[in-house]
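Batch job 17 of 40 flagged for manual review because the log was empty.
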Amino acid sequence: MSAIFVILLTLFVIAVSSVTTIPFSIGLLAVASVLFKKSWVFFLAFGLGLFLDLITLRPLGYTGLVLTIFVFVLFLYERKFETQTIAFVFISTFFASLIYLWIFNFQQIFLQSLVNALFAILFFKLLWLKLGPRSEIT
């Protein structure tokens, strides 16, 4: 059941990311990394990045590399901090969006990062209610 829910959220993120410049995929990856703590999130990050590169007509692999590094950093910090909190999801998504938007030269990066972090909290709460507060959700 959780796999179907994640697939639907991923499709929603891809659809919205093709319409707007807000990188909703970063929020989805932050939530997936925090809740699932599985290695398939790396493949999801790279796949989303490749697909976003195809949509935005960028050279293949740039976005995938940035998203994969972001997931790697989140996995590094999961042992040092309590990651399954709203504050961690908000801060990590905000700073990752800020860096992503700065790297790819977007406009109004602060506002877009703030909106993305708020949507990440919404994704987090939605998945938390759907899947339940377990230490490692499978």
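Reviewer: the log was empty due to a logging misconfiguration, but the result itself is present. The chain has one domain: 2-6+23-131. Unflagging and moving on to job 18.
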